[in-house]
Amino acid sequence: MPIVYAVDDEMNVRRIIRQTMESEGYEVETFATAEEALEAIETRKPDVVFCDITLPSMSGIEFIKTMNEKAYSFRVIVVSSITSPEEIIDAFRLGISDFITKPFTPQELRESIEHCLKSEESLQKRVREIGKLIDQKRFHRAALLAKKLFLDYPESGYPHFLMGLIEKKEHTKAAAKHFRAALAMDESLKEAESELKSLGEG
User: What pLDDT does residue 188 have?
Assistant: First the structure.
């Protein structure tokens, strides 16, 4: 069951997100501040986070930047009354998956999270396909698909991990760089850590 966090200082917004997501079968936790959410994330990672931009103390943008610095790999959907194109563009530059403008409907929430999770499902499917090509030693084809993955999922550590697997037989230093990059982007990619150790780099 996917885990959803909602971060918003408006109780009514948290309530709507909780009710809508729970009705879809998601497990939901809500927080009034970014600091509370970050504390919870340290012990339990969500699959998707809904967050506002205008939060007390730490802003939504600072919250997203902090999550990026910690290399968390879950999806972030901004739910905000902000309509400034510049601020919306800034949020997308930080790697958010979607931006929903308040007031919103439950259907908008459902469509946004469905798109996010389908995108993640598509990523995993493509990672498996490229992994099979590597196992079959079809490295040229695997490299072409991995490069496409970089373009489609620039925030993911998987393209670097796959390029490391492709490079490791002939170019161990390049492979190690890719594995380190994969870990820097997603610390949960333990496979990259294992590969680094196998290269004597861990």
Answer: 77
Distance in angstroms (rounded) separating the CA atoms of residues 125 and 18: 29
Q: What distance in Å separates the CA atoms of residue 6 and residue 194, rounded to the nearest whole number?
A: 34
Q: Give the pairing of strands 98-101 and 27-31.
A: unpaired
Q: What is the mean pLDDT of residues 120-129?
A: 84
Under a CB-based contact definition with an 8 Å cutoff, are residues 97 and 76 in contact? yes
Domains of the chain: 3-104 (3.40.50.2300), 123-198 (1.25.40)
Is the pLDDT score of 125 beyond 90? no
Distance of CA 132 to the CA centre of its chain: 24
Instruction: Evaluate whether 72 touches 41 at the Cβ level (below 8 Å).
Output: yes
Give the residue, 51 or 122, on which the prediction is more confident: 51
Report helix, strand or coil for 42: helix
Other Cβ atoms closer than 10 A to 62: 13
Query: Is pTM beyond 0.70 here?
Result: no
In this structure, are residues 164 and 180 in contact, taking their beta carbons and an 8 Å threshold? no
